[in-house]
Amino acid sequence: MFKSALVALFSVFFLLHAPVQAKAPDADAGKGVKKTAKKISKPAARRKTAKASLDNREKLVRKVVVVGGKRKVVYQRVAARPVVPAVPPVLSAGDIAGLNLTQDPLELKSNVALVIDPADSRVLFEKNSTVALPIASLTKLMTSLLVVEAGQDMDEVLEITEADVDHEKNTHSRLRVGTRMTRGDLLHIALMSSENRAASALGRNYPGGLAVFVAAMNAKARALGMMDTHYVEPTGLSSHNVASARDLAKLVLAAREYPLIRQYSTDTKYMVEIAGHPLQYANSNRLVSNPEWDIDLQKTGFINEAGRCLVMLTRIDGRSVVMVFLDSKGKLSRLGDASRIRKWLSELRAPHMSEARRRHDEG
Predict the structure, then answer these.
(1) Which element (helix H / strand E) includes 261?
(2) What is the set of domains in the chain, with CATH numbers?
(3) pLDDT digit string (tens) for 263-283?
(4) pLDDT of the residue at 350
């Protein structure tokens, strides 16, 4: 009996200390894993095969379709969007001359700037103001000055011809060949909206024709003391129309003497009729519709060689100021520069106004 108990105890001890053997893998489970792996790899394999057959003009697009009520993933080859090579920026004449390296305390975006007090011609701010550069549609200010000074009939009807079509820059115009419009309307939209065909027609219908008109533009420039200025046509599309900021300030002061130029250049909108159909134009300078600005005369301009240009006769804290900006970078940068100058002048004037107010109170 003792022997039987000893054998039983030894059996229990052996079972407790016997090494545990790992369970053999389930053959069926292994097969199931293999089947699942095959199912996952099929779409990847199809995608890999499809990609391998693509050329550089195609790309692979993943789509989910329904076939027989079941969702199915397919990969379709489609034409890839062509890669457009980067176009290098167009350098303006100012950039080529190195004017973009000039620093100024207001960090203006214009390569050229000039601000003067017309009361005494005192220069309040300047940056490269004596360098002659392309002036784009600022040219139209001289064009308008000559037309007004010539005393031509503003009610005379002129016709847009093929000679007015821009074959240099291929710019668009809403005035088709054959359009008939009064000289006054052409002058209005040339100043306000910088309409090129309108300016061309004005010059072409000057007494003696276009060649005489261009000669008169240069003669007027000399008479005004604009010694850095040269014109070859009346629109500003040619980069050979050049002037310095100092010269343009003189042109602004000459043009301000004519109420018609002041009015037409600062109107916000104007409607004309062409063959009985109304056509509305808007001012190319959005500052004229800004209630914070008081602008007496303005003109904008742009061609690649000139950059963004702007001249203005405006009032800041009750004082008239002439502003000239040439070769500005960015569509709104010239307007931003004008705002910087305006703020700067207001801050400069504030201490003097405070002193004047103090003296007034003490008196």
Answers:
(1) helix 259-266
(2) 93-357 (3.40.710.10)
(3) 999 999 999 988 888 999 999
(4) 62
